[in-house]
């Protein structure tokens, strides 16, 4: 998703440079070229940011991991849908098609069909992501930890505790990777499941 954001946002920025030229802006102003540029920069950037936010925070908030294979499939489907929907709009704009039209010229119908198919694929990818969230809840794949990670966020419990007693039922775990983690158990207590930083020589004994 990060690579997708960089590529699509850069492509939208390049089309913005095209629109910054006065000669070209007089021709492309208020055409579908502007629509395509705007959606590549703003809509896709916002959508990808929301998806990345869910991927990053969902395990921490819920304590459940998302299916990696399904996420990769959803990323591919989304990018195919995005580009099928918005990329042909540049051609519309270069042909001088205004932003608001009631009836397309007959020669533009096939491109409009491509854009429509891309929009349906994009909508399906959004529904597919909701399914991925639902699947993580149903399958209950609990998060065990974030390997070799040392950020402050990784020091929090997963899911976040409702009280501030961080060390109920602790036991020591001798492992080389970074931070410690906790997960809920059925009796509303939480087990101390941790990978302790060997540098600090931290050890909790029950």
From TrEMBL:
<dbReference type="GO" id="GO:0020037">
    <property type="term" value="F:heme binding"/>
</dbReference>
<keyword id="KW-0408">Iron</keyword>
<feature type="transmembrane region" description="Helical">
    <location>
        <begin position="110"/>
        <end position="134"/>
    </location>
</feature>
<dbReference type="Pfam" id="PF00115">
    <property type="entry name" value="COX1"/>
</dbReference>
<comment type="similarity">
    <text>Belongs to the heme-copper respiratory oxidase family.</text>
</comment>
<keyword id="KW-0249">Electron transport</keyword>
<protein>
    <recommendedName>
        <fullName>Cytochrome c oxidase subunit 1</fullName>
        <ecNumber>7.1.1.9</ecNumber>
    </recommendedName>
</protein>
<dbReference type="GO" id="GO:0046872">
    <property type="term" value="F:metal ion binding"/>
</dbReference>
<keyword id="KW-0349">Heme</keyword>
<keyword id="KW-0472">Membrane</keyword>
<keyword id="KW-0479">Metal-binding</keyword>
<keyword id="KW-0813">Transport</keyword>
<keyword id="KW-0496">Mitochondrion</keyword>
<comment type="pathway">
    <text>Energy metabolism; oxidative phosphorylation.</text>
</comment>
<dbReference type="InterPro" id="IPR036927">
    <property type="entry name" value="Cyt_c_oxase-like_su1_sf"/>
</dbReference>
<dbReference type="GO" id="GO:0004129">
    <property type="term" value="F:cytochrome-c oxidase activity"/>
</dbReference>
<comment type="function">
    <text>Component of the cytochrome c oxidase, the last enzyme in the mitochondrial electron transport chain which drives oxidative phosphorylation. The respiratory chain contains 3 multisubunit complexes succinate dehydrogenase (complex II, CII), ubiquinol-cytochrome c oxidoreductase (cytochrome b-c1 complex, complex III, CIII) and cytochrome c oxidase (complex IV, CIV), that cooperate to transfer electrons derived from NADH and succinate to molecular oxygen, creating an electrochemical gradient over the inner membrane that drives transmembrane transport and the ATP synthase.</text>
</comment>
<keyword id="KW-1133">Transmembrane helix</keyword>
<feature type="domain" description="Cytochrome oxidase subunit I profile">
    <location>
        <begin position="1"/>
        <end position="144"/>
    </location>
</feature>
<dbReference type="GO" id="GO:0006123">
    <property type="term" value="P:mitochondrial electron transport, cytochrome c to oxygen"/>
</dbReference>
<dbReference type="InterPro" id="IPR023616">
    <property type="entry name" value="Cyt_c_oxase-like_su1_dom"/>
</dbReference>
<feature type="transmembrane region" description="Helical">
    <location>
        <begin position="6"/>
        <end position="28"/>
    </location>
</feature>
<keyword id="KW-0812">Transmembrane</keyword>
<feature type="transmembrane region" description="Helical">
    <location>
        <begin position="40"/>
        <end position="58"/>
    </location>
</feature>
<keyword id="KW-0679">Respiratory chain</keyword>
<dbReference type="InterPro" id="IPR000883">
    <property type="entry name" value="Cyt_C_Oxase_1"/>
</dbReference>
<dbReference type="GO" id="GO:0015990">
    <property type="term" value="P:electron transport coupled proton transport"/>
</dbReference>
<dbReference type="GO" id="GO:0005743">
    <property type="term" value="C:mitochondrial inner membrane"/>
</dbReference>
<keyword id="KW-0999">Mitochondrion inner membrane</keyword>
<keyword id="KW-0186">Copper</keyword>
